[in-house]
Amino acid sequence: MAGRHTQTCALAGFLNVFGDAWSLMVVREALYGTTRFSDFQRNTGAARNLLSERLNTLVEHGILEKVNIASKGERYAYQLTTKGHSLKPLLAAVITWSNEHLYPEGSAPNRVVDSATGTDLHGFTLTPTQTQQCETIKVIAGPGASDAARKRLGKLT
């Protein structure tokens, strides 16, 4: 990752953890249910060395937890911590913004919806009430989603 921000600023601190091309993609995958290194690599396209570095950084900052899942020897999975799960409203807001501002109408790669009603959450913003309601939202495949993304996102229903 490029040089660290030295300003005493919440955004600078955030960028020191997530300001590279891969960390938020790893968190996205963890929110989608990905736990294994090989699956993170396949789903993000990150090189092994970069992915390993990002996973270690996210573990170091308490976003992910590295869990030995082998009955003998070492075999690890990565799980979001409570701190990691708290990024869900942020990612929902970023996805919604991207859908509305970066993709032509009807071609968004995924949608942010209320999980109970399936209603699209357009113009999603983070108010205290909405932050509390983030447990009721989920990301589903949109019209522009790849087949692989549809398959992964389909597991969330």
What does this molecule look like?
It comes from Thalassovita mediterranea. This is HxlR-like helix-turn-helix. GO terms for molecular function: DNA binding. Residues 9-106 form the HTH hxlR-type domain. Keywords: DNA-binding, Transcription, Transcription regulation. With 157 residues, this protein is an alpha+beta fold. The chain folds into 2 domains: 10-81, Arc Repressor Mutant, subunit A, CATH 1.10.10.10; 87-154, no CATH class. The chain has helices spanning 10-18, 23-31, 37-44, 48-60, 82-85, 88-102, 128-133, 147-154, and strands at 64-68, 76-80, 110-114, 137-141. The strands form 2 sheets. A two-stranded antiparallel ribbon has the order 1-2. It has a two-stranded antiparallel sheet with strand order 3-4. A hairpin with a 7-residue loop joins strand 1 and strand 2. The longest helix has 15 residues, at 88-102. The protein is globular, with a radius of gyration of 16 Å. The model has no long low-confidence stretch (mean pLDDT 85).
Number of strands: 4
How far apart are the first and last residues' alpha carbons, in Å? 35 Å
Oligomer: single chain
| Corresponding CATH architecture of the largest domain | Orthogonal Bundle
Principal-axis shape equals globular
Strand content: 5-15%
Query: H/E element string?
Result: HHHHEEHHEHEH
Domain HTH hxlR-type: 9-106
Keywords: DNA-binding, Transcription, Transcription regulation
Protein name: HxlR-like helix-turn-helix
Organism: Thalassovita mediterranea
